[in-house]
């Protein structure tokens, strides 16, 4: 688990890490069965252990035994998960009819938002929560769904000002589209013709899918909630209620500003406060953007008050507010911070968090060796290397190239940003140890902390593998795996052990052979290595017999991914269960694991 695929050839992983029995079991497994391993779908009777020498079977662990042990320790086999209907029956409301939205997000994001927004809305209604705090809100899809479809008030917080601004813009556009949908449906019911103006062609179109009579709602009575977008770096010391008070106060100021925007300053550790600031230009460089959608009839306030707005909610009334804390794919330590925030803020009545990016977690009993300083000290490349802070390419499977591109862009901090105050610096999430006032993200439970348990970075990287997706869609990155391991052999021979850079980015798909791959990698790493194409072809020929083995090793290793992820999730569940002020905690599978590999939510509730 602690190895790295980059070192597969240089460290001879096949011989040094796999017992002979497992080696033979993997080689005997037909290729059509091979990809069933990661998800646990492989029938253990299909493993041809009978072809292994009897003496070897007695002296070595075989493949079927190993897979059986792994399977027995899966979350499903352990019986530690709770079904979503059970949780909602205990703590949520009945099903809420909504105005449907499809076609505006990718299939993956649409699935996630549709499922999670319903769960949050029903929990919010069950606990009479009137503000939802969305941590790590990103592009704001979840927040927009809660506001526009379910009429909830949402404070969306993200550490990226670009995300905050774009989410606000997207939310406003979605509101306008929904209004047009309501008008169109009204005309349709009345038998009137729908006036259609000129429309630009678009790849993504908002579609209103029909709803059944049981789920139908009167579109004219559908209400929208309020939306606030805030740029802030959240830690466990953040006072959520105070942030909400300041955000609402800033909204009242904005109502009177008429032409000015909001910015942020550092007031106390872990919190960015909203203050007034004149707009100097039309750029989006402000650290905070506040958005308000007209509340036609706020469902969380008396129905008679149709003039309700953010600005009308006085600060003293917030003391009676009940909050919900949510996060869809909160990155790295933010998931652990969310849990601690839920525990320490009594006004938060429930939490629903789906974490991701386990490789970015800061561990208590393991020192992160990949700090920015170390990478700079050990990088022997002379050129710029904008991709060295990306995820290691064998673990990036399942993430879109655009997501990796955005991470690369966010990892580059300009000189002007470096001179800002701590409140406005764009911290590098790939190096969480350098972020001030940030607590560890693992372990959380007293059980693992007493054991000083550590996973280490490569193990956490492995936990990010999309096991079910590998089984469903196979793996198309074999060239990337093999060529990268082969490149490491070349680099070690040419540069020696002092070379420690491992990031070359996603270049394999753009290359026809190893020679071209090597040239592009040299350029990415800023290296000037003199080697002929014929010599590069020789490398590939000399190691050709390893190509099949590296694929089988990778898939066996990926079989351990759900086990490691399960350990991280159970640690969070145990930590919540240890708290006396928390009524109940649950681990729930929300999403289809093929569509959304990080599919489990940690849900915690207080007494109503």
Automatic annotation (TrEMBL):
Occurrences of domain Methyltransferase (ranges): 108-363
Region (Disordered): 279-316, 376-428
Protein name: Methyltransferase-like 25
Annotated organism of origin: Penaeus vannamei (Whiteleg shrimp)
PANTHER family: CGI-41 METHYLTRANSFERASE, METHYLTRANSFERASE-LIKE PROTEIN 25-RELATED
Keyword tags: Methyltransferase, Transferase
Biological processes per GO annotation: methylation
Annotated Pfam families: Methyltransf_32
Sample GO molecular function, one term: methyltransferase activity
Basic and acidic residues: bias regions: 400-410
Lineage, top ranks: Eukaryota, Metazoa, Ecdysozoa, Arthropoda, Crustacea
């Amino acid at each position: 688990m602690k190895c790295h695929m980059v070192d597969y050839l240089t460290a001879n992983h096949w011989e040094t890490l796999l017992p002979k029995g497992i080696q033979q079991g993997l080689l005997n497994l037909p290729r059509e069965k091979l990809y069933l391993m990661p998800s646990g779908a492989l029938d253990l009777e299909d493993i041809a252990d009978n072809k292994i020498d009897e003496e070897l079977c007695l002296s070595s662990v075989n493949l079927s035994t190993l897979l059986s042990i792994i399977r027995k320790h899966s979350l499903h086999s352990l019986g530690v998960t709770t079904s979503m209907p059970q949780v909602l029956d205990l703590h949520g409301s009945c099903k809420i009819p909504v105005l449907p939205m499809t076609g505006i997000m990718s299939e993956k994001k649409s699935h996630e938002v549709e499922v999670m927004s319903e769960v949050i809305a029903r929990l919010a209604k069950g606990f009479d929560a009137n503000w939802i705090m969305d941590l790590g809100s990103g592009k704001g899809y979840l927040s927009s769904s809660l506001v526009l479809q379910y009429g909830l008030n949402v404070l969306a917080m993200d550490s990226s000002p670009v995300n905050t601004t774009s989410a606000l813009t997207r939310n406003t556009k979605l509101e306008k589209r929904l209004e047009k949908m309501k008008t169109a449906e009204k005309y349709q019911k009345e038998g009137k013709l729908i006036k259609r103006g000129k429309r630009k062609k678009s790849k993504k179109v908002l579609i209103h899918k029909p709803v059944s009579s049981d789920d139908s709602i009167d579109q004219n009575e559908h209400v929208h909630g309020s939306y606030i977008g805030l740029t802030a770096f959240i830690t466990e010391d953040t006072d959520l209620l105070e942030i909400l008070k300041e955000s609402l106060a800033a909204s009242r100021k904005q109502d009177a500003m008429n032409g000015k925007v909001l910015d942020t300053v550092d007031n106390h550790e872990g919190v960015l406060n909203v203050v007034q600031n004149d707009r100097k230009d039309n750029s989006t460089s402000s650290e905070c953007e506040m958005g308000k959608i007209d509340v036609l009839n706020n469902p969380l306030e008396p129905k008679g008050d149709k003039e309700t707005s953010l600005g009308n909610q006085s600060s003293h009334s917030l003391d009676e507010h009940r909050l919900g804390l949510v996060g869809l794919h909160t990155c790295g330590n933010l998931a652990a911070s969310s849990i601690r925030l839920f525990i320490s803020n009594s006004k938060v009545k429930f939490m629903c968090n789906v974490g991701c990016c386990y490789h970015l977690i800061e561990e208590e009993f393991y020192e992160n060796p990949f700090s920015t300083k170390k990478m700079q000290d050990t990088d022997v490349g002379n050129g710029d290397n904008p991709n060295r802070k990306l995820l290691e390419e064998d673990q990036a499977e399942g993430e879109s190239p655009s997501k990796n591109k955005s991470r690369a862009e966010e990892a580059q901090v300009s000189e002007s940003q470096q001179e800002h105050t701590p409140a406005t610096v764009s911290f590098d999430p790939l190096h969480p140890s350098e972020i001030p006032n940030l607590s560890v993200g693992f372990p959380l439970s007293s059980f693992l902390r007493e054991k000083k348990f550590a996973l280490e970075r490569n193990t956490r990287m492995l936990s990010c593998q999309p096991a079910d997706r590998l089984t469903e869609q196979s793996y198309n990155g074999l060239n990337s795996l093999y060529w990268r391991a082969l490149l490491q052999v070349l680099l070690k021979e040419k540069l020696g052990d002092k070379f420690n850079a491992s990031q070359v980015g996603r270049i394999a798909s753009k290359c026809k052979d190893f020679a071209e791959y090597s040239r592009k990698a040299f350029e990415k790493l800023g290296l000037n290595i003199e080697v002929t194409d014929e010599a590069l072809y020789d490398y590939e020929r000399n190691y050709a017999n390893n190509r099949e083995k590296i694929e089988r090793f990778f898939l066996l290793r990926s079989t351990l991914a759900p086990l490691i992820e399960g350990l991280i999730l159970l640690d969070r569940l145990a930590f919540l269960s240890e708290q006396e002020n928390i009524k109940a905690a649950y681990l729930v599978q929300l999403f289809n694991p093929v569509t959304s590999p990080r599919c489990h939510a940690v849900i915690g509730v207080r007494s109503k």
